Amino acid sequence: MNDASLFHWSEPQADHVANCVDSFLEQLKQPTLISQRGKDSSRCRLFVTLLHGNEPSGLMALHRWLKSGEQPEVDCYFFIGAVEAAKAEPRLSTRHFSHLRDLNRCFYGPFHDVPGRIAQTLIELLDELKPEAVLDVHNTSGSGPSFAVSSRNDEQHIALTSLFTERLLLTDNKLGALMELTRDDRPIVTIECGGAIDPESARVAWDGLVRFVRYDNVLKEPPHDWNLEVLTDPIRITLTPDTSIAYGDHGNVDADVTFPVDVEHFNFGRIEKGTVIGELKQAGLQCIHATDAQGNERVDELLEVRGHELVNRIGLKCFMITSNPDIAKSDCLCYAVIDDSPE
């Protein structure tokens, strides 16, 4: 990824937008801002997607919207970030180039490199456009249901969440993500649509985008027939840098940690106390960290080792579990929320 300059595509006509998502991606040569004039030009909203190049649901929804030729309710801007990573072969499989920082970890700076300059450009757009609402649309690294992520549990953030999903994760973790720049006058919510290969993810992204651009008021929760599930205080579980990881039915003799091939089925289901969730080559938890938003190490509270089996000490709900070893190593194994409800 070498180009941090922004291309502005104003008022694209439906017949000028490529007919398929792959060709649409080919039309994008660099980070791109697409603008559409709404019925009400006194307000605007911002839809951000593809900050990770392997998370296509937001791009797919945006392409479908542009091809519809419909006018949004208010002025709408669409920011597409990691275009070059997404175009790397095989298409839509590269989260970010290994020699560059993760774009969605750059919003606190520094801004000297390419992903930093792209992040800085988006921050400048927030200040210039003054959107009334911002969505950052992603896919989870592994298969699983949709959820939103926010640092605030107020009416505005709940309303934006409810456009897409019935689950909200509240976190104070500071990783340099766009969502962390939320303000009272500019609420920002991250939407995790589910896994990139999950058919449901495309529907979540499309239905939510349509509500975001069509509704007159997206900052007041609309009526619906479900109760929002709010999960709090996620703990980030990571591996130490020199730890190797594998996926298989039994411990891999060449890997320090082995997880089941179907480990993603743990996403959002309650993991009962005492469940075997992996195997370790060496006994002990030295290769795993479990860190809360305050930086406290809590691995001994959550996990234990029985022989060489990795077991959870308490009931947990986990999410963003991935079977992609590169992401598990470079980002995290998963996030966990303590669930001490009666078994």
UniProtKB/TrEMBL annotation:
Coiled coil: none annotated. The keyword Metal-binding applies. Its cofactor is Zn(2+). The keyword Hydrolase applies. Residues 51-196 form the Succinylglutamate desuccinylase/Aspartoacylase catalytic domain. Keywords: Hydrolase, Metal-binding, Zinc. Gene3D superfamilies: Zn peptidases. This is Succinylglutamate desuccinylase/aspartoacylase family protein. It comes from Neiella holothuriorum.
